[in-house]
Specification:
Helix content: 40-55%
Shape: elongated
Largest sheet: 8 strands, antiparallel, barrel
Order of helices and strands: HHHHHHHHHHHHEEEHEEHEEEE
Number of helices: 14
Length: about 450
């Protein structure tokens, strides 16, 4: 009986449990229908569709422009082929069709065929010899010969010359250029340009500034022929060879005593002079401080100018710029360099006067002409270093004045140097090397 009751209970529960799933499915279907209506009516869906359409249109337009550009390039290249074969009329037709499709097709074609330069380490600035930089270490790792690498570490010039020879160019442009870069020049032309940089005035300072740009310029600025010509111009054809006393021509130029040509040697002289007694007070006697300057300007070919003046330094320096100065008070002469000694022979400039006018003037004034004689100044200096400045001081050794009169008599006056003739100190003048008139020969 109990089993029957239980079975009846289960049978009574089955229809109630089967009605729940049908209700859930109806609710789920109604929810789906509402959700679909909301999606169709929402503005976000429309914006997504618009974006998709725009992206499709843009991709289609890009493809069309690319195809048009390729077609224009093809037409332009055909025009070039016809022009090279002499068919100018057909070439013009193709050029017109290509320009109609893309107006700047020639520029685009040139840019697509141009080789884009990479960034090379040689464009970086060359440090001093005692500095270690990453680029040199990378280049040393690329070399396969270990014995040569050991020697390269002690010689910066040899290392950089190997790098430049491996690149087979003086330098490389660091950025993309629209015009011809200096790297397109061969080494021979660069060396000839450097002769103009040094010029006939021996402006070696500009050459050293040039060597700081990159590796190729560093190697070019240390060309042995340039430094040999500089040595010959300073000491003459009898300067000899740099071996065995010096390492190179450049080392000889830097270490051997010489004169400097890109400025003036200046000497400042001051002394006290007694004045006259005052008529009001006989016990009062003034003292006057006298101050003046001497200037020496040397030229590589052996010419020298000397000026003694109380004017401002700027005026005096400008008057010594030319080899034929206009200032009549400047002494002109020649010098000779022997070891660390410099010998100077100077004369006053000759004044061109009209003898007829002088005779008339003398007749009127009834003056008697005075024979002052022709003076020649002989001076000898010793080249020395001043602190860390090489060859920047000239010390007086002798100073004589030879006077020759018209009757043949000659008189020598030997001056006592003492404190009235202090040493000359060198000062660089920028205007002396602003222009290059002739190359180094």
């Amino acid at each position: 009986m109990e089993n029957q009751d239980i079975s009846s209970d289960e049978e009574s529960d089955e229809p109630s449990s089967s009605c729940f799933p049908s209700n859930n499915e109806d609710a789920l279907n109604s929810f789906r229908e509402k959700w679909q209506r909301e999606l169709e009516l929402s503005p976000k869906r429309d914006s997504v569709k618009i974006k998709l359409k725009k992206s499709l249109n843009s991709s289609i337009s890009e493809d069309e422009t690319i195809s048009i550009e390729n077609k224009a390039k093809h037409l332009f290249l055909k025009g070039i082929e016809h022009e090279q074969t002499g068919k100018l009329y057909e070439a013009i037709q193709f050029y017109k069709r290509a320009v109609q499709l893309v107006p700047d097709i020639e520029f685009r074609l040139y840019e697509s065929t141009k080789i884009k330069p990479q960034r090379f380490e040689s464009d970086e600035r060359i440090p001093r010899d005692d500095e270690n930089h990453r680029d040199d270490r990378e280049d040393e790792q690329e070399d396969t010969e270990d014995d040569d690498d050991d020697e390269d570490n002690s010689d910066l010039f040899f290392k950089l010359s190997k790098i430049v020879s491996r690149n087979q160019r003086v330098c490389f442009p660091r950025f993309e250029q629209n015009v011809t870069h200096i790297s397109a020049l061969p080494m021979e032309i660069v060396l000839y340009i450097l002769r103009w940089v040094v010029s006939s005035e021996l402006d070696l300072r500009s050459l050293e500034m040039f060597s700081r740009v990159c590796r190729g310029f560093y190697i070019s600025a240390r060309d042995a022929e340039i430094w040999r010509l500089a040595c010959v111009r300073v000491w003459g054809v009898n300067c000899g060879k740099f071996e065995p006393q010096y390492l190179s021509w450049r080392d000889m130029y830097l270490q051997r005593p010489r004169l400097r040509y890109n400025g003036c040697y200046i000497s400042k002289t001051t002394y006290l002079r007694h004045g006259e007694n005052s008529f009001q007070d006989q016990f009062y006697r003034p003292w006057h401080l006298i101050e003046y300057f001497r200037y020496l300007r040397f030229f590589p070919e052996g010419r020298v100018l000397m000026l003694t003046s109380t004017d401002e330094a700027q005026i005096c320096v400008n008057s010594l710029k030319s080899r034929t100065p206009r200032n009549s008070s400047i002494l002109i002469g020649h010098y000779r360099l022997r070891d660390n000694l410099v010998t100077l022979i100077l004369k006053k400039q000759e004044h061109k006067t009209n003898n007829n006018n002088n005779n008339v003037y003398r007749r009127k004034r009834r003056e008697i002409s005075h024979d002052s004689g022709e003076q020649t100044f002989h001076a000898e200096f010793e080249i020395q270093n001043y602190h860390k400045k090489v060859n920047s001081q000239l010390n007086w050794l002798t100073y004589n004045i030879y006077t020759k009169y018209k009757n043949g008599e000659e008189v020598q006056t030997r001056l006592n140097l003492g404190m009235r003739y202090p040493s000359f100190r060198f000062s660089r003048v920028k205007s002396y090397t602003q222009e290059s008139e002739a190359p180094l020969q």
